[in-house]
């Protein structure tokens, strides 16, 4: 299992954008936790992921590099 | 253009707020204030307020005949000029027709802003007429996208859209504009939205020193440069680096023109249809300096067998490319105009350079094919020799695209517009229209634009002949007609036991008659002795022209690295 903490700006479609990149880059969401953040400027997302079959060799660093390119994503950290 | 007018109609400050200013007026004034004097689009219901604002504005709107054509023309405009391309479409089908152009701009890193109409905010989510969730649809084909939910957001979103399209690795940005937002009064003060200049970033000297050390120790280095060089306006920096290091060079499809073709040690394009010399040099090199390129699968062949003995220095504006396909020994992210001079140290590679020059001579192109039928590579080479250096050549996708890359010469990357990442049939003609318009706005008003196409590709956006005719643009279409989807047919012959499934186009229309129906002069040539006169006629004809060239249906593109093979295992004519 791979655990990522994503901090992003709470703007249009930000969760869709994050999940789309995760899927497209070959990972499958096993768990997602997002605390209620009504009115907050930021959003914290905890992702638990596993590799899709076709991405069995994709380093997590590559996924992190793609996520951080999203305009609204501020920080991505991998948890051990 | 029917609805164009002059700049005198506007205030000195086009962004000054005034009573009665609507969202749509504000959009047009932002375009004007950014020096965007040409946009491409197609009107429709939800976007009508914007078209009303364009009427009597200094921004010239080019009416294309399909939204995809408008998007591709905006890309051609951007790539040929270095400016931001802007395309406009209405909601629903108009917007969805832009999707391929957005993907094209995404994969080739082109600064493009797409403005799409949307149903009023009160109708969003009701499956209203011509409503489609364009924000959702755009997520995978844009760098970023916005839905403007009220007019107060408009200034900041437009500012961000243009800034994002051009910053870092350029790309497409979509702004979805509900009709009521375009019609709402816009009372904000846009002058307060200026973006601060980017602060220069210090060079990572440790990494630079490591890279310099690798270069100064390399006896068989190769410079491998791609489309990022032109996008960064770093052609001169790249040439300075090549000259100082003295290393041989190869280019990707999108990089062509970044190194002058007559440069010592320049070996041409590498990859699947690259030159034998380029591929062999890369396979033998001990250091690969990758500049603004990304180890694309069409470049590397079997990745594990690509440049097997090479250390790698990778320079790119986008750090997510580092290690995505090939792990670099040194990776440097930043402005190539700063990085390249900082790494320009001599490499001890004189003997290697001589070997590469010998390979270049040994594997030079030959144009002595027998027979009287027209040999497309020879025709393109002949044409290339007769064109001024400033000519823009666009092409579609297929065999002719590879022949253009192999047999025509380019001295600047902005003069070779080819759909690299997406490989979009139908790119060439609208891109040529955009390129021609961009050059008309610059001092080089007499620049020709050649669109090399195939009989499959040309039919994908043939309606844009109408746009070329209406504007009387100097777009010359060279249509290589083998009555086939040639590249697919070639692969079927080589790898699918000759089972030519759905690749025969023997029922093509009469192309010269079709061009003439659009009001464009045209002629057909069948034999090679007709080539020289036909080229002269085409080049001497004002405005658009179509030269229809019948070529052998069985002609193949060589060399070819077969799928799954290493780049030194190229197939030649078999």
UniProtKB/TrEMBL annotation, chain A:
GO MF assignments: acetolactate synthase activity
Pfam family, one: ACT_5
Keyword Transferase: yes
Superkingdom, taxonomy of origin: Bacteria
InterPro entries associated with the record: ACT-like_dom_sf (IPR045865)
UniProt entry keywords in alphabetical sequence: Transferase
SUPFAM superfamilies linked to this entry: ACT-like
EC number: 2.2.1.6
UniProt enzyme class: transferase
Protein name: Acetolactate synthase isozyme 2 small subunit
From TrEMBL, chain B:
A molecular function GO annotation: magnesium ion binding
SUPFAM superfamilies: DHS-like NAD/FAD-binding domain (SSF52467), Thiamin diphosphate-binding fold (THDP-binding) (SSF52518)
Pathway participation: Amino-acid biosynthesis; L-isoleucine biosynthesis; L-isoleucine from 2-oxobutanoate: step 1/4; Amino-acid biosynthesis; L-valine biosynthesis; L-valine from pyruvate: step 1/4
Protein name as annotated: Acetolactate synthase
Bound cofactor: record note: Binds 1 Mg(2+) ion per subunit.
EC number: 2.2.1.6
Needed co-factor(s): Mg(2+); thiamine diphosphate
GO cellular component, one term: acetolactate synthase complex
Pfam family of the protein (one): TPP_enzyme_M
An example Gene Ontology biological process: isoleucine biosynthetic process
Gene3D superfamilies: 3.40.50.970, TPP-binding domain
Protein family (similarity comment): Belongs to the TPP enzyme family.
Catalysed conversion reaction: 2 pyruvate + H(+) = (2S)-2-acetolactate + CO2
UniProt keyword list: Amino-acid biosynthesis, Branched-chain amino acid biosynthesis, FAD, Flavoprotein, Magnesium, Metal-binding, Thiamine pyrophosphate, Transferase
Keyword Ubl conjugation attached: no
Residue intervals of the Thiamine pyrophosphate enzyme TPP-binding domain: 396-549
Enzyme class label: transferase
């Amino acid at each position: 299992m791979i655990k990522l903490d994503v901090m992003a700006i709470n703007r249009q479609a930000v969760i869709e954008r994050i999940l789309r990149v995760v899927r497209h880059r070959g990972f499958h969401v096993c768990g997602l936790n997002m605390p209620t953040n009504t009115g907050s400027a930021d959003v914290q997302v905890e992702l638990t992921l596993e590799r899709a079959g076709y991405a069995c060799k994709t380093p997590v660093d590559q996924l992190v590099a793609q996520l951080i390119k999203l305009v609204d994503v501020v920080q991505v950290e991998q948890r051990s | 253009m029917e609805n164009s007018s002059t700049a005198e109609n506007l205030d000195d400050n086009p962004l000054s707020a005034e009573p009665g200013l609507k969202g749509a007026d504000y959009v047009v004034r932002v375009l004007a204030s950014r020096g965007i004097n040409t946009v491409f689009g197609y009107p429709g219901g939800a976007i009508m307020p914007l078209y009303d604002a364009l009427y009597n504005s200094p921004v010239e709107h080019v009416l294309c005949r399909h939204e995809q054509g408008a998007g591709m023309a905006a890309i051609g405009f951007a790539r040929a000029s270095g400016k931001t391309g802007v395309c406009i479409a209405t909601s629903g089908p108009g917007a969805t027709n832009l999707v391929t152009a957005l993907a094209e701009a995404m994969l080739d890193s082109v600064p493009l802003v797409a403005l799409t109409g949307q149903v009023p905010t009160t109708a969003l989510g009701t499956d209203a007429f011509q409503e489609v969730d364009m924000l959702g649809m755009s997520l995978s084909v844009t760098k970023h996208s916005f839905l403007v939910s009220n007019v107060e957001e408009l200034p900041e979103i437009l500012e961000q859209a243009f800034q994002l399209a051009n910053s870092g690795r350029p790309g497409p940005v979509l702004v979805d504009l509900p009709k009521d937002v375009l019609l709402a009064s816009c009372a904000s003060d846009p002058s307060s939205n200026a973006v601060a200049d980017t602060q220069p970033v210090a060079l990572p000297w440790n990494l630079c020193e490591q890279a310099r050390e690798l270069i100064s120790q390399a006896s068989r280095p190769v410079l491998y440069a791609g489309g990022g060089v032109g996008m960064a306006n770093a052609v001169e920096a790249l040439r300075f680096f090549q000259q100082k290091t003295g290393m041989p060079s190869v280019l990707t499809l999108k990089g062509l023109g970044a190194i002058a073709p007559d440069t010592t040690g320049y070996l041409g394009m590498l990859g699947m249809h690259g030159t034998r010399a380029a591929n062999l040099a890369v396979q033998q090199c001990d250091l690969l300096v990758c500049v603004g390129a990304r180890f694309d699968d069409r470049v590397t062949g079997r990745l594990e067998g690509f440049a097997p003995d090479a250390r790698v220095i990778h320079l790119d504006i986008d750090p997510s490319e580092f290690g995505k396909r090939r792990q670099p020994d040194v990776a440097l992210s930043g402005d190539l105009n700063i990085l390249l001079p900082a790494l320009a140290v001599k490499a001890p590679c004189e003997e290697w350079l001589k070997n590469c020059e010998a390979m270049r001579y040994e594997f030079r192109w030959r144009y002595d094919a027998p027979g009287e039928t027209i040999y497309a590579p020879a025709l393109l080479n002949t044409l290339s020799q007769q064109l001024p250096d400033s000519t823009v050549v666009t092409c579609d996708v297929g065999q002719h695209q590879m022949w253009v890359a192999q047999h025509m010469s380019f001295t600047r990357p902005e003069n070779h517009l080819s759909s690299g990442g997406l490989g979009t049939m139908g790119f060439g003609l609208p891109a040529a229209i955009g390129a021609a318009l961009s050059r008309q706005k610059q001092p080089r008003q007499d620049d020709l634009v050649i669109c090399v196409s195939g009989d499959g590709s040309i039919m994908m956006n043939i309606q844009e002949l109408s746009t070329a005719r209406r504007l009387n643009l100097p777009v010359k279409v060279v249509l290589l007609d083998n009555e086939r989807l040639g590249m697919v047919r070639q692969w079927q012959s080589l790898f699918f036991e000759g089972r030519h499934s759905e690749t025969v186009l023997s029922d093509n229309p009469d192309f010269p008659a079709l061009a003439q129906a659009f009001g464009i002069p045209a002629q057909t040539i069948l034999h090679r002795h007709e080539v020289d006169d036909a080229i002269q006629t085409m080049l001497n004809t004002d405005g658009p022209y179509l030269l229809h060239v019948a070529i052998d249906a069985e002609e193949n593109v060589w060399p070819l690295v077969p799928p799954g093979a290493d780049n030194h295992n190229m197939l030649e004519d078999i």
